[in-house]
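Technical note accompanying the year-one report. For the benefit of new consortium partners, we illustrate the data format agreed upon in the data management plan: each record pairs a sequence with a structure-token string. No post-processing was applied to the example shown here.
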Amino acid sequence: MAYNEFAYFYDELNSEADYDALYRYVTDELAAHGIRDGILADLGCGTGDLTLMLAQAGYDVIGIDRSEEMLSVLREKADELDMTGRILLLRQDLLSLDLYGTIDACVCCLDSINYLTDPAACRETFRRVYRALKPGGVFLFDVNTPEKLREMDGQVFLDEDDDVFCVWRGSYEETERICTYGMDLFQRQGGLWRRSQEEHRQYAYSLDELREFLQEAGFASIRMFADRRPEPPAPGEQRVYWMAIREETTHA
């Protein structure tokens, strides 16, 4: 399920996300592979804090999300910053990704890959990303690990500010490898509160199968890292980053 009503409160209730650190990590990794500008796709861009930072850094960014509500929030931000000309927004599922041309790099952050709850959809997404990249292009993404999603089982989280209150409830189904987040959102409207509900599902991909999917797509240079640290993931790691490169075309 895409973010619907929650999209308009996502930034307020997600204030702990360190986008500055994420931006530094992403741009440092891209620069290390010689990509300091050019066309970049941000998959699952959401309300677009990272998208806008990358555009301000000089990339021509394609922001892609399946939620029209999330993209609407991003459009408003881009208008306020006069960045509309540097960003192209597309409403697409990752499974049907079509960028109408080739790109220099692709990023997919904050566990958007986990929302592909069918492994066949993840395989197809990786194939589409590979076809969209220029030779030498970089695909950088992160996932919530199975260890993290299992720990969500039975957990309850509260987020609030003066005008909105959100209760998150997590459950994990081992057989299906699905973590479900039930969300109850209460919005202040005068002296009353309006309740809405959403349900989100994430799939627990193993590191071995993600590597296999990337190799099947055609990527040959594949590395994984601990959460924004230049080292292999430790046992029990909660989030893992992946770097996959479409190799340069060679001529006989």
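Partners are asked to follow this layout when depositing records. Helices lie at 10-13, 19-32, 49-56, 68-80, 119-132, 146-151, 207-217.
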